[in-house]
Write a structure and sequence with these properties.
- It comes from Aquitalea palustris.
- By secondary structure, this protein is an all-beta fold.
- The protein has four domains: 154 residues, Jelly Rolls; 342 residues, Methylamine Dehydrogenase, Chain H (7 Propeller); 106 residues, no CATH class; 138 residues, Elongation Factor Tu (Ef-tu), domain 3.
- Strand 26 and strand 27 form a beta hairpin.
- The radius of gyration is 33 Å and the shape is globular.
């Protein structure tokens, strides 16, 4: 008996074999049995992932490092390499250089603590916290001018000194003297922060109710600060109260029986925060114009939020006011060390055992008098930085290694968590997630590093109920990831580019490489980049711009001093025709810019030179690589010990890198031929119709060991030339094999694109 089957979407991604019997689930009808090195697109197709570009080796391959994203502006972003004792900076698939060497900033972090650093960015300041180290701020002052400092959270001490009070009492008859004491504070220009109080004046006696009697308060101006005014306070019945202010240059104030305002008092500060070992926070964030910290070793369930509108002012007053710092402790059922503070509509606190919601009771801005702290669920988060997508929080749970989403539910009037890896537990169980990041464009994908060395991806569009998992391997163990926004050379729009640290063993030596996932955009097959740790002779170069000099490293550029050529820079403002100022060697030259500036990135030369070999591939020495020459793959070959690959014939655009094997397998087929949906019948797929888009080099078969090339050459393709990329329906007669599943396998091993939109099958049923 013959029948047909049709897979029209793969939007559910890879599904665990344990769910093959759940034919009642809609997602089982749109899933895949295997999705390896392929990306599920939000609208249903599946495409092979782009390759990665080699950026550099980390400073010391003997020790792991991690990556932290930094965004200075919409056009200037960095992937910061954090290692024991140093920061390095990478952007546009290049490394920030200074004087011919990678630019570095020193730090004091030990190797064992690198993975547990948490961070938050505001403008050009990156706040770094770890429970074993004081809070640190990494500041960008210029392209090659970064500083790492420890901010002070002590109350400002630039108060007036020598405060005294004197009595003027021309009328003493029938008087009823009262003791008075005063203090003065400084309000600083700019941030308007108020200092601690000056010394308290010696008590004086006077009856200010009598006409003409008054007290004069005097002080000495503070040094090292520019005040905008001075606030004066009077002590009455044990409470301070505000009685007025004096100008920035004034040194005296007269109290002629001013009634103190006891609702405004001098600032007070607690001790025990960021002042000693055990008092350093583990979590940091921003919420409602406050910088928030939580989870010290001595107070693991405590939270501190700075005074509204300030970065480091942790003062309060008595009575409290809305702008005061906020400090509280979670009253939890079990030990719940705060690991993350996540700002969404409310402030979400993720601890080792539960999730909390911090909000105001009246819907206004949060402060001490309207604080509400409520548990939302009892799951627990591990130490990996959570991701915010829209108003949803994605986090890795503390136990079990799964990924969960946390979003507000109006029916429950609370934040609910959901296991979004429930359809693919085989990718997570008995492993842990080590790092995560999220790419928002061109496709919304959560990237998660697993302890097994694989990189897991989830195409995530919650409003369309798309949460499709796929897995990726890179010929080594992925150890760290981050996403930053960049505009890849040759494209017209910005993308979120994925940076990775991959640990590979090459010729018996451990090497850790920083690599950037290439854009999947390509105009022609020669633009395709589907190799890992790869490079290309057409966009091979890097440049360093300082002043008017642009130093370019372009392997085998073939130019001489005085030659003119068009250069395409990743900084598009620099692209144009240049006359070569000087040539250092066959790989390095210097151009002169008409403008003064600085920066680094990638550069290509047009027209490209014909080359018969590609050199400079030292990081791939001794490895077997795939090669694409002007859009046509040539047989795999080994890179020489000197980092050279020799081609079979000259080409202008050559892409070289480690092979990528993309594998897609459909789920077992269910057929409406009996009440068992055909599960008891053996099936033989005799022919497949693949609907493809801009694809070449696909193999199809009943399993990955029995594959048939999907021939796509047409009469329009000249003999000896690479066939054009195919779009449309491609019929493939495959090797017959009787099996109960009736699934087919699709594989791509060439460095060429593949996008599969649907599959139709001709099936014989026993």
């Amino acid at each position: 008996m013959g029948t047909k089957a049709f897979d029209r979407s793969f939007a559910a991604g890879e599904i665990t074999p344990e769910m093959y019997g759940r034919l009642d689930l809609t997602k089982e009808q749109t899933g895949l049995a295997t999705c390896r090195n392929a990306i599920v697109l939000p609208h249903g197709p599946v495409a092979n992932r782009p390759g990665t570009e080699f950026v550099s080796e980390i400073k010391s391959s003997a020790n792991p490092a991690r990556l932290i994203p930094f965004t200075y502006s919409i056009t200037q972003t960095m992937a910061i390499e954090v290692g024991a004792g140093y920061f390095r900076f990478h952007s546009q698939a290049g490394t920030l250089m200074n004087g011919g060497v990678p630019y570095e900033v020193a730090n004091s972090y030990a190797q064992a603590d690198i993975a547990n650093i948490h961070y938050v960015q505001s403008a050009d300041v990156l706040t770094l916290v770890h429970p074993n180290y004081p809070i640190a701020e990494l500041r960008r002052l210029g392209a090659t001018n970064w500083t790492l400092t420890n901010p002070s959270f002590a109350i400002p001490t630039y108060c007036p000194t020598g405060a005294t009070a004197t009595v003027t009492s021309p009328h003493t008859s029938s008087w009823n003297p009262v003791n008075y004491q005063y203090c003065v504070t400084t309000v600083q220009t700019g941030d308007l922060q108020e200092s601690i109080a000056s010394n308290v004046t010696t008590a004086i006696s006077n009856d200010l109710t009598l006409l003409g009697n008054y007290n004069t308060i005097t002080w000495t101006l503070p040094t090292g600060v520019t005040p905008i005014r001075f606030n004066v306070y009077k002590l009455v019945n044990g409470l301070w109260g505000y009685i007025g202010q004096a100008a920035a240059t004034a040194t005296s104030f007269i109290d002629n029986n001013i009634t103190p305002n006891a609702s405004q008092t001098p600032p007070i500060m607690d001790s025990g925060f960021n002042d000693a070992v055990g008092n350093y926070p583990a979590a940091v964030s921003y919420y409602q114009q406050r910088r928030c910290f939580g989870g010290t070793n001595n107070a693991p369930q405590n939270v501190w939020m700075t005074m509204s509108g300030t970065e480091s002012n942790l003062t309060y007053t008595l009575p409290v006011t809305a702008s005061n710092r906020v400090a509280f402790r979670i009253a939890a059922r079990e030990a719940s060390a705060i690991r993350h503070l996540v700002p969404v509509a409310n402030l979400i606190m993720l601890t080792a055992s539960c999730e909390w919601r911090v909000s105001s009771t009246d819907g206004s801005a949060l402060w001490a008098s309207n604080l509400s702290v409520q548990p939302q669920s009892y799951i627990g988060a591990n130490n990996v930085t959570p991701i915010v997508v829209g108003n949803t929080v994605l986090f890795s749970q503390a136990r079990g290694g799964r990924i969960r989403e946390m979003a507000y539910n109006w029916q429950a009037q609370a934040y609910l968590t959901n296991d979004i890896s429930v359809l693919a537990p085989h990718l997570f169980d008995y492993n842990q997630v080590l790092d995560m990041c999220f790419s928002r464009a061109p496709y919304p994908i959560l990237w998660a590093v697993s302890t097994n060395g694989n990189l897991l991806g989830m195409t995530y569009v919650p409003e369309q109920q798309v949460a499709a998992w796929h897995r990726h391997d890179f010929g080594g163990n992925v150890e760290a990831v981050c996403c930053i926004t960049e505009q890849p050379a040759g494209t017209l729009a910005s993308e979120d580019m994925l940076y990775l640290i991959v640990n590979r063993v090459i010729n018996g030596v451990t090497r850790r490489f920083i690599e950037r996932m290439h854009t999947r955009y390509f105009n022609t097959p020669s633009d395709a980049f589907f190799v890992d740790s790869g490079a290309t002779n057409f966009l091979p170069g890097t440049f360093s711009w300082s002043g008017t000099a642009i130093s370019c490293n372009i392997p085998s550029h073939g130019l001489s001093t005085g030659n003119s050529a068009y250069f395409t820079f990743s900084n598009t403002a620099l692209s144009g025709t240049y006359t070569v100022t000087s040539v250092t060697d066959t790989n390095n030259l210097v151009l002169t810019s008409t403008t003064v500036g600085q920066g680094s990135g990638t550069v290509s030369q047009t027209p490209a030179q014909y080359v018969s070999q590609v050199s400079g591939l030292t990081w791939l020495a001794g490895l077997t690589v795939n090669v694409l020459v002007d859009g046509a793959p040539i047989p795999a070959r080994q890179v020489s010990s000197g980092g050279v690959v020799t081609l079979d014939y000259p080409g202008t655009k050559v892409v070289v890198g480690l092979p990528i094997t993309t594998q897609v397998q459909t789920l077992p087929i269910s057929l409406q031929v009996d009440t068992a949906m055909g599960q008891t019948l053996e099936k033989n797929v005799t022919q497949a119709w693949l609907r493809l888009y801009r694809t070449s080099g696909v193999y199809v078969g009943p399993d990955f060991n029995t594959l048939t090339l999907a021939t796509q050459r047409s009469f329009q393709d000249l003999p000896g030339n690479q066939p054009a990329l195919f779009s449309g329906v491609l019929p493939v007669v495959i090797t017959p094999a009787w099996q109960f599943d009736g699934a087919i396998c699709i594989q791509q091993t060439d460095p060429l694109p593949m996008t599969l939109t649907s599959v139709a099958l001709d099936i014989s049923v026993s």
